[in-house]
Design the sequence.
């Protein structure tokens, strides 16, 4: 999708650039792992370790701009996903578990804005509450700032600046792309064009008078993190579907088994430890010019991993017990994961050198390819061996954490799922209901009839938003607030669309054209999408059940999880997969165990970005130049320093001060001279009289 949009003048979209955008988008999905249900069970750093390894398996890199820092990951915030915050945390103050979580809901947040016909939490910035429009403005303010540093700053052309600009663009697109799938926008458009029996997902008596029009309000669903928790963490009551964390554990375990088998067959390592996997790795590295220092590092990392495996072995059969949530009087003492001797902070420090080693090797390979062509066979062998070696190194550190916390995390997610279930049918039973649940309203799943038009709406949004942000990068004289006001017009009720606005026209016509293109011209939509049909689940098609719902975006690496790969798997062998890691498909047992033949592969993530490869909008969109034969070219490596294992003094996500109750992201503006020095930009200021965005003490100079 992004490759069809003009990039910075003189440059083009590369696969790495797209990965950086998608990384920002992906992080907002996985921030949902840090919420009340999970943070009452273990520390945030424990969860961050698991997300970090999932990111590594998805992107192939885990340091530099792809490091999952605490600041970049953040926590679950409803406004980042346009989620309805009703009954969030059972109306308790979630900040007692993590100060970054939001506070109790204010009644005004859930009311309908009479000016726009939308829920206030979507885009009403007159109330001083957290809104999705505010989050988008916050994210794009950062993106434009770092984009301008890259194009026009004193140190223009710095790679870290464009990486941060792209990541912030990705997190903003995440929120906006959800508009078609997580609201009742498509249903309201269908009603506007004459399909008056289409169910709006609100009660029969919830119509409002919107500037002379009798319409149902535009709403989103509650408990938006439910599908995510089910997919990534799983539920205690679910004994069939395998969560992403469990699949990650399987991949690590099989790599560990293969390494042990290699050790048994070939005792070539020091003191009989390390075996042929280490020998294979060091032997291959010795053939790469300039990689001599990596041989010694590989040996040291293997020794540390073996020591960790021996240390954790006695506790393997002793399940952890949890006394209470962190911060409570009955909570676990000390820094360790309850019931274990595992300190997540120390684990982070231990795994970072392993991930850094992997990135260094990939960087060395990339540099070698540029200088010495014709080494394709050697490169493929190194990448496969490297993957097995690195996963084997990680396993003794990561698998004990998974074993210690998986059951507790499942119990935590089950509580959220059960709370969602209590409200499922309120739009049918309460005539005044304007708070449907996400699971029934969302169009993320391939089987939903409205999945395709919702995805097309997301594409129309990206096509409109991305060029305007990129234009602002290149033109520092364009007022930031002008761009922000333009792009946040995404948030609108179709009955209030501006016929003079290109974005509104394109979004509306996308749904209208989809309806008319159906074989019957859309005549049966009133039946298929009527109230009773939706309640009975007839708005889902059986034919879509066999489609794989790809975990992430790089095609061509489907071997890890099964034959179907990440795109539409018509033979029922689709899989979610960790497609960015060459060689993982060679781990014994992973392919047949993950691919499964159940058709669905991974359960679909609720907030996968539309318009990106693997997104929830029908068969995944593939990047033409990303395949198994040139995957090693897609990751040029870390050229500059972005973060370390310690939090950077300027937070990567840039929240500044912790949000107070429902107020978003407040931070005092920085002096203008800091702009040229690469500091984060002034953050949006939210005032009762109306928010001010993009203003500086003095105009920035480049």
Sequence:
């Amino acid at each position: 999708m992004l490759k069809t949009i003009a990039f910075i003048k003189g440059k083009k979209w590369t696969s790495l650039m797209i990965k950086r955008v998608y990384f920002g988008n992906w992080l907002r999905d996985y921030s949902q792992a840090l919420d009340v249900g999970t943070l009452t069970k273990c520390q945030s750093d424990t969860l961050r370790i698991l997300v970090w390894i999932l990111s590594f398996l998805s992107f192939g890199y885990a340091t530099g701009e792809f490091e999952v820092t605490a600041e970049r990951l953040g926590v679950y915030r409803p406004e980042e996903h346009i989620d309805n915050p009703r009954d969030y945390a059972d109306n308790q103050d979630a900040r007692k578990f993590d100060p970054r979580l939001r506070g109790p809901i204010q009644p005004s947040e859930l009311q309908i804005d009479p000016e726009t016909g939308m829920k206030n939490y979507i885009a009403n910035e007159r109330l001083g509450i957290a809104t999705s429009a505010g989050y988008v403005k916050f994210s794009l303010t950062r993106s434009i700032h770092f984009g301008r540093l890259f194009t026009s700053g004193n140190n223009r052309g710095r790679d870290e600046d464009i990486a941060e600009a792209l990541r912030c663009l990705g997190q903003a697109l995440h929120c906006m792309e959800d508009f078609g799938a997580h609201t009742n926008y498509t249903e309201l458009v269908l009603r506007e064009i004459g399909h008056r029996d289409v169910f709006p997902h609100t009660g029969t008596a919830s119509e409002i008078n919107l500037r002379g029009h009798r319409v149902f309000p535009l709403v989103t669903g509650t408990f938006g993190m439910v599908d995510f928790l089910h997919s990534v963490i799983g539920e205690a009551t679910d004994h069939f579907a395998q969560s992403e964390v469990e699949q990650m554990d399987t991949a690590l375990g099989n790599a560990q088994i293969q390494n042990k088998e290699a050790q048994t067959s070939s005792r070539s390592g020091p003191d009989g430890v390390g075996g042929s996997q280490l020998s294979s790795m060091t032997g291959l590295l010795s053939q790469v010019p300039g990689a001599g220092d990596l041989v010694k590092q590989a040996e040291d990392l293997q020794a540390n991993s073996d020591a960790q495996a021996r240390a954790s072995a006695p506790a393997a059969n002793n399940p952890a017990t949890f006394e209470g949530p962190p911060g409570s009087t009955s909570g676990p003492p000390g820094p360790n994961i309850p019931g274990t001797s595992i300190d997540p902070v120390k684990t982070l420090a231990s795994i970072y050198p392993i991930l850094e080693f992997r990135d260094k090797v990939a960087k060395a390979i990339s540099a070698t390819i540029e200088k010495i062509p014709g080494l394709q066979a050697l490169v493929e062998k190194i990448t496969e061996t490297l993957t097995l070696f690195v996963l084997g190194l990680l396993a003794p550190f990561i698998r004990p954490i998974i074993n210690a916390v998986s059951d507790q995390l499942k119990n935590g997610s089950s509580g959220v799922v059960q709370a969602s279930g209590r409200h499922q049918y309120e739009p049918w039973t309460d005539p005044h209901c304007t708070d449907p649940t996400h699971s029934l309203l969302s169009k993320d799943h391939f089987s939903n009839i409205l999945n395709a038009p919702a995805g097309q709406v997301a594409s129309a949004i990206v096509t409109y938003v991305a060029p305007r942000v990129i234009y602002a990068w290149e033109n520092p004289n364009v007022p930031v607030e002008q761009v922000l006001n333009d792009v946040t017009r995404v948030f609108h009720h179709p009955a209030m669309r501006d016929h003079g606005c290109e974005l509104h026209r394109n979004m509306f016509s996308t749904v209208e054209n989809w309806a008319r293109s159906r074989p019957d011209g859309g005549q049966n939509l009133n039946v298929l999408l009527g109230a009773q049909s939706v309640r009975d689940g007839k708005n889902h098609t059986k034919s879509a059940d066999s489609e794989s719902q790809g975990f992430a975006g790089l095609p061509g690496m489907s071997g890890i999880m099964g034959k179907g790969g990440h795109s539409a798997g018509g033979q029922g062998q689709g899989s979610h997969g960790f497609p960015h890691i060459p060689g993982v498909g060679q781990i014994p047992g992973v392919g047949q165990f993950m691919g499964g033949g159940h058709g669905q592969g991974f359960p679909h993530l609720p907030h996968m970005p539309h318009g990106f490869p693997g997104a929830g909008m029908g068969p995944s969109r593939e990047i033409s130049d990303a395949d198994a034969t040139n995957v090693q070219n897609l990751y040029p490596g870390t050229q500059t320093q972005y973060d370390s294992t310690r939090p950077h003094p300027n937070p990567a996500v840039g929240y500044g001060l912790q949000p107070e109750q429902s107020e978003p992201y407040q931070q005092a503006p920085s002096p203008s001279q800091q702009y040229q020095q690469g500091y984060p930009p002034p953050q949006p200021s939210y005032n009762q009289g109306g928010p001010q965005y993009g203003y500086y003490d003095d105009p920035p100079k480049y």
